[in-house]
Specification:
- Pfam families: DUF6424.
- This protein is of the alpha+beta class.
- The chain folds into two domains: about 130 residues, no CATH class; about 100 residues, no CATH class.
- About 30% of the residues lie in helices and about 15% in strands.
- The chain has nine helices and eleven strands.
- It has a five-stranded antiparallel β-sheet. It has a two-stranded antiparallel sheet with strand order 2-5. Strands 3-4 form a two-stranded antiparallel sheet.
């Protein structure tokens, strides 16, 4: 993959050591998943989250991660009721279901206390949850977490287990979709705030996928892109790892098919480089006139 550059690209500034390999073999077994039953905590939390989402849709409110159907992600869902309606914030960390078995109750209790402080700032929340039938909310927020039972209750509660995501955003795998379970959150998070006409995830010449971001602000005319995630052991992954070791960036030039794919919807069709002015499109204004605006 000759079009991935590390700035600066000179390789005579460091010396590569000899490759090493371990002396102890290891293995991974893919086994049948034991039957997993939903806890009463999770059933109650999901039921309440669905009622909240129904209220949001009925009121024309903004859904946290788009329309359903949803899967409930154990991602640190802090639901609160504001004067304007329901909102969902994210906890400092979310506890995935399987991670509860290595969770320290003392550390999970800190999450409980932080959630309680947030919800205290929204006094409409607990009465609203009572009205929806989620009467366990007060006990969850008020009861210190000291053992595995407390960890389980918090892990499967409305305050952790109910981030409403589509299947793609929850557990999708590229090239179809990048799910939160499989891709680093600092990168995946950009899917929720990027411009719709910028392709965060691109296909590389070797058939793998990478996440890229622009190196300058929109409209700057700079068409290079920075690789922010790539599969380990691939040329792009190696370039990214090298750049990080050297505190630099792995940058793809603007005439690369990777950069062209990332900016495809922003640049004129047939462009040989992404370093061009934004493509314009015709938009109808509120007064009915048609005006050209940057896309």
């Amino acid at each position: 993959m000759t079009d991935v550059l590390t700035r600066p690209a000179a390789r005579d500034e460091f010396e590569l050591g000899r490759p090493r390999k371990g002396n102890h073999p290891w293995e991974i077994r893919v086994v049948k998943h034991p039957e997993r039953s939903e806890s009463s905590h999770f059933r109650a939390a999901k039921k309440t989250a669905k009622k909240i989402l129904e209220e949001l849709e009925a009121d024309g409110g903004e859904l946290p991660y788009g329309p359903g159907p949803w899967e409930m992600h154990h991602g640190g869902s802090l639901w609160v009721r504001a004067e304007s309606g329901w909102r969902m914030y994210r906890a400092r960390v979310g506890i995935e279901w399987s991670a509860q078995f290595c969770a320290d109750p003392v550390k999970v209790d800190r999450l409980r206390r932080e959630a309680a402080e947030l919800i205290e700032a929204f006094p409409l929340t607990l009465p609203a949850l009572d009205a929806l039938g989620y009467k366990r909310a007060r006990d969850l927020l008020d009861t210190p977490i000291t053992d595995a039972d407390g960890v389980e209750a918090w892990t499967d509660s409305l305050f952790n287990a109910c981030v409403p995501l589509s299947t793609a955003n929850h557990s999708g795998v590229l090239p179809k979709a990048a799910g939160e379970h499989h891709y680093p959150w600092p990168v995946k998070a950009a899917d929720y705030f990027r411009y719709d006409d910028f392709e965060l995830w691109v296909r590389l010449p070797d058939g793998t996928n990478a996440a890229v971001t622009p190196v300058d602000r929109r409209g700057s005319g700079e068409g290079a892109v920075r690789i922010v995630h790539a599969r380990h052991g691939t040329p792009a992954g190696d370039a990214l790892a090298e750049a990080q070791r050297r505190r630099m960036m792995a940058v793809v030039p603007p005439d690369s098919p990777i950069a062209l794919a990332a900016f495809e919807q922003q640049i004129p069709r047939g462009s040989k480089t992404a370093s061009v002015p934004l493509r314009t499109r015709r938009r109808r204004s509120s007064d009915g006139a048609r005006r050209s605006t940057p896309s």
